[in-house]
Amino acid sequence: MPSETLWIADENSKPLLQPGFHFEGDLLTNRWDIAELAQGKVGRSFYNDFHLEELDRRYRRIVYSVSKEKAVVHHIINQAPRFLGEGGELVLLGEKQSGIKSYAAKVAERLDGGKNLQKYGNDYCSVNRVEHPQGGTPIGEEDYPQLRSLPELGGLYSKPGLFGWNKIDKGSALLAQQLTTELPKEGAQVIDLGCGYGYLSARLASLGSFHFTAIDNNAAALLACKKNFQTQGIKGVVLPSDAGAELESGAADLVLCNPPFHQGFQVEGDLTDRFLQQSARLLKITGTALFVVNEFIPLLKKGPRYFSEVQLITKEKGFCVYRLRP
């Protein structure tokens, strides 16, 4: 029965949630945009960092199009027996490049059964039944739910489930180096657009007193960023948002942004445009946006669609930092 099915929807599931789509079962996602799109289209919609226990029930079937982040996939495979019960099915979907063949073998190991993988054009489907309530041996997932303070991040907290969760992104580090010469006035309203675990907010907060609004689509990012705001004493709020669309226009003195350019396993060409458009909307007329992008992103071409001033500040190791003003 569809109502006894849990659909775990990661970034690859977004194209399905079009007008007219309907699914009677439950949907669980770690992405705010998907949770919002799912409203009214599914039986129940849940937004969290894949905490299946919050759903408070078992299912006959879990359907999951595998995520880009390996730790997420391992976490869901490990949790499946507990929320399926004996005789329940875990269905994994994915293209060859997603690692689906390897994950199918891990599912067989975890559910203590045989590998069952079928090919349908460019896609693969793995269907495995839970033979024993406890399943087989859990596979490695790096203690997925646990936030941890990492020396390599200067003591900031992070966790698996975030892209580059245990390192400082080179682009963000390059942008952070420019902050001493790009400081807003004391008390300025700062939006950290696509905040991740909050690295840029933490770096700027160490240079003065500002009020931050940190936003991200990813539930794991929000957990980590909230923890860092608390432990670092950073003034502000951490909110779920799809590229800032939910925020008030014209309120920010400064926008900081290292925009993503991948949506799942694909390069999505309009992601940078969405972040540029929202930044222009969010800024005061006297405000400034600081963007860092890979050098192949044509920000000098894209930026003038939304800003009157687009200036390259620095270029290093394949990344470019731009100053943009309305």
List keywords for this structure.
methyltransferase activity, S-adenosyl-L-methionine, alpha/beta, Small_mtfrase_dom, Rossmann fold, seven-stranded mixed sheet, 8 helices, 326 residues, methyltransferase
Give the topology, please.
Blueprint: E1 5-8, E2 23-29, H1 32-38, E3 42-47, E4 61-65, H2 70-84, E5 89-95, H3 100-110, E6 117-120, E7 123-129, E8 148-149, E9 157-158, H4 170-177, E10 189-193, H5 199-205, E11 211-216, H6 219-232, E12 236-240, E13 252-257, E14 262-263, E15 266-267, H7 271-282, E16 283-294, H8 299-302, E17 309-316, E18 319-325
Parallel strand pairs: 1-2, 1-4, 2-3, 4-5, 10-11, 10-13, 11-12, 13-16
Antiparallel strand pairs: 5-7, 6-7, 8-9, 14-15, 16-18, 17-18
How would you describe this structure to a colleague?
With 326 residues, the protein is of the alpha/beta class. The protein folds into two domains: 2-129, Rossmann fold; 148-325, Vaccinia Virus protein VP39 (Rossmann fold), CATH 3.40.50. It contains eight helices and 18 strands. It has helices at residues 32-38, 70-84, 100-110, 170-177, 199-205, 219-232, 271-282, 299-302; strands spanning 5-8, 23-29, 42-47, 61-65, 89-95, 117-120, 123-129, 148-149, 157-158, 189-193, 211-216, 236-240, 252-257, 262-263, 266-267, 283-294, 309-316, 319-325. The N and C termini lie far apart (53 Å). GO terms for molecular function: methyltransferase activity.
The total domain count is: 2
Q: Please give the share of residues in helix.
A: 10-25%
CATH superfamily of the largest domain: Vaccinia Virus protein VP39
How many beta-strand segments? Answer: 18
Main sheet record? 7 strands, mixed
| Tally of alpha and pi helices | 8
